[in-house]
Amino acid sequence: MDRIDLRSDTVSWPTPEMRQAMAEAEVGDDVFGDDPTVNRLQEEAARRLGKEAGLLVPSGTMGNLVSILTHCGRGDEVILGDKAHTFVYEAGGISAVGGVHPYPIPVQEDGTLSLEAIRQAIRPNNVHFPRTRLIALENTQNIVGGMAIPKAYIDAVGELARAHKLALHIDGARIFNAAVALNCDVAELVAAADSVTFCLSKGLCAPVGSVIVGRREFIDQARRIRKVLGGGMRQAGVLAAAGLVALDKMTQRLAEDHANARLLAEGLAEIPHIDVDPSRVQTNMVFFSLRPDAGMSAPELVDRLKKHQVLILARDERRFRAVTHYWIRAEDIIRALGAVQKELS
After folding, report:
1. Which of 81, 92, 291, 311 is most deeply packed, by most CB within 10 A?
2. 253-344 belongs to which homologous superfamily?
3. CA-CA distance, 30 to 231, in Å (whole number)?
4. Confidence at residue 345, expressed as pLDDT on a 0 to 100 scale
């Protein structure tokens, strides 16, 4: 019986087309700038997102770290959400490595930051304060449910940033999911941003890698920061080849993952002892919880589901996250729902 792994879209693996492209990839030394497949990926990523240049990095965490360290110097400050992946899940790297000070403000239920809260967080020119240099958004916003942040809001934050001579960075690990959910061209969606990172893995199924895009001079400096962090790779074309397939093919089918996530949420809503709001499922994430009368904890249910070859992620004693991806089909959702129903009956 095949395993149904809903813990994250990070568990996805390369498609046969990707493996073939990797095996046949033309390579060079990317630190010298002469890996043709990496160069083609970087150019295509920049074109798709409407920016001048791109830079391949090993991970989304490094992409955000490189971007923030390129925008900010030591002692500078970045305004970001208190539930932002960069603030919560990236090991404090911007401070530990770059000496950059985070100013976290509350993430709202729709995944946005209040414009007034951002405005109030911008420091005045005072020797006692760190200097505000950057505003960072996340799209989709993971922790509040994979919410897609609309273009009008991003444009408003961009206008606010420009008015105060600040830069705007978007952690777009799942930016293509957001674009699909909003029915918005991805370049238009991020037009107001000075830099964007997005993951080639996760829902796009490549085995490794993220890309940073932005202005050419920004990417030139980001390349130096990547080198400092040990992110300069040599014959990385074998990875970039999978990334090109991801951009060309996988970005076109993400609506299927979103539909499967809605199917899962609607099915869970019919099962006793579970609380879930299907109306909040915008992309490929489903957040749900056990009611107090369930008779077990979230970790206990996770453990019981393993015998059905169903894997989900417990967030705490009551709450779960499930994430759909390319290797999850509608029939897998039905089977997973049956397993949950059986264990809670």
Report:
1. 81
2. Aspartate Aminotransferase, domain 1 (3.90.1150.10)
3. 11
4. 87
